[in-house]
C-alpha cells in the first residue's frame, strides 16, 4: 500500500495538469470581458468561397418606390448630404419580372463633394433556397460613374456569420428621367 500511494499521487497530479491545460485550450485566454475560442468548438471548419450574381433594382419613381429619400441635400450643394433608405428587390435577371432572390435593405448617402460617390450601407437579405434568412452585409464607397465599383463585405448572418469578401457593382441601366437604376452585383464571400 505504501508503494501505491506515491504512484496514485503522481497520477492524480498528472491528471490535474492535463485537465488544467485542456481547460485553457478549450476556454481560451481570459481577458475579463473576452476570450479567444477555438472556431471548431462553434462548428466552424474550413472556409468556403462563394460567388453570388444578382440584379439590384433601385426604384425611386412610381407609386411604390423601393428607395425613399430621408434627408435631402442642402440647397447650396448639388447632391452632397442626401440620404436614401432602401428596400430594393434582388433578382436573378435584369428584368423586374425575373425571380426574386432577396432584398437589399439599408441606406445610401451622398458622401463626396467633388463627384457622385455614395456611402452604401446595406444587407443583402436572401429569401431563396438554403440561403433563406441569411444576410450579407456591405459597407463601402460607391463612385457611381466608375464602370465597376468594389465595396467590402464586412459580415453577415445565418450562413454568412464571420464572412468577409467584396461586392462588385456594375450599372446595367439608369433612367435619367425617373432616377431608376438596375445594377448588376457580383459578390464574392469567404464563409464557413
TrEMBL record:
It comes from Castanea mollissima. Keywords: Apoplast, Secreted. One of its GO terms (biological process) is phenylpropanoid biosynthetic process. This is Dirigent protein. Dirigent proteins impart stereoselectivity on the phenoxy radical-coupling reaction, yielding optically active lignans from two molecules of coniferyl alcohol in the biosynthesis of lignans, flavonolignans, and alkaloids and thus plays a central role in plant secondary metabolism. Its main location: secreted. Homodimer. PANTHER family: NUCLEOPORIN-RELATED.
Amino acid at each position: 500500500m505504501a508503494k501505491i500511494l506515491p504512484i496514485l499521487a503522481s497520477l492524480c497530479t498528472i491528471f490535474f495538469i492535463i485537465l488544467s491545460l485542456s481547460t485553457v485550450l478549450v476556454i481560451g485566454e481570459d481577458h475579463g470581458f473576452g476570450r479567444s475560442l477555438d472556431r471548431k468548438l462553434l462548428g466552424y471548419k474550413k472556409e468556403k468561397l462563394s460567388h453570388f450574381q444578382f440584379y439590384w433594382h433601385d426604384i425611386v419613381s412610381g407609386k411604390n418606390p423601393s428607395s425613399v429619400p430621408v434627408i435631402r441635400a442642402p440647397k447650396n450643394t448639388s447632391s452632397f448630404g442626401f440620404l436614401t433608405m432602401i428596400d430594393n428587390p434582388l433578382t436573378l435577371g435584369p428584368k423586374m419580372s425575373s425571380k426574386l432572390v432577396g432584398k437589399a435593405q439599408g441606406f445610401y448617402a451622398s458622401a463626396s463633394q467633388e463627384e457622385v460617390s455614395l456611402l452604401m450601407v446595406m444587407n443583402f437579405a436572401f429569401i431563396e433556397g438554403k440561403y433563406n434568412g441569411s444576410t450579407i452585409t456591405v459597407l463601402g464607397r460607391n463612385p457611381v460613374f466608375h464602370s465597376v465599383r468594389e465595396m467590402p463585405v464586412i459580415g453577415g448572418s445565418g450562413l454568412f456569420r464571420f464572412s468577409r469578401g467584396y461586392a462588385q457593382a456594375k450599372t446595367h441601366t439608369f433612367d435619367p428621367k425617373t432616377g431608376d437604376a438596375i445594377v448588376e452585383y457580383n459578390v464574392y464571400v469567404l464563409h464557413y
